[in-house]
Amino acid sequence: MDNYFRCISYIYICKSFTFVLILIAGLLYAWRKGALQWSYLLITQTMKRNKKE
């Protein structure tokens, strides 16, 4: 019975590790696309508004 719980705990550790890796991959993707550059977005939006006026 002890071996059963040890096996299940390893499975959940692997699932948790996979989940964290997916989160990190998403964060890196957003970072490379520039989605985390909020100040850049504000500047470009302001410049676009000024061009329209």
UniProtKB/TrEMBL annotation:
Gene3D superfamilies linked to this entry: NADH:ubiquinone/plastoquinone oxidoreductase, chain 3
InterPro entries recorded: NADH_UbQ/plastoQ_OxRdtase_su3, NDAH_ubi_oxred_su3_sf
GO cellular component: membrane
Catalytic function, reaction form: a ubiquinone + NADH + 5 H(+)(in) = a ubiquinol + NAD(+) + 4 H(+)(out)
Transmembrane segments: 12-31
Family matches, as Pfam families: Oxidored_q4
One Gene Ontology term of the molecular function aspect: NADH dehydrogenase (ubiquinone) activity
Compartments (UniProt record): Membrane
Keywords carried by this UniProt record: Membrane, Transmembrane, Transmembrane helix, Transport
Signal peptide positions on this chain: none
Protein role: Core subunit of the mitochondrial membrane respiratory chain NADH dehydrogenase (Complex I) that is believed to belong to the minimal assembly required for catalysis. Complex I functions in the transfer of electrons from NADH to the respiratory chain. The immediate electron acceptor for the enzyme is believed to be ubiquinone.
Protein family per UniProt: Belongs to the complex I subunit 3 family.
Stated name of the protein: NADH-ubiquinone oxidoreductase chain 3
Phylogenetic placement of the source organism: Eukaryota, Viridiplantae, Streptophyta, Embryophyta, Tracheophyta
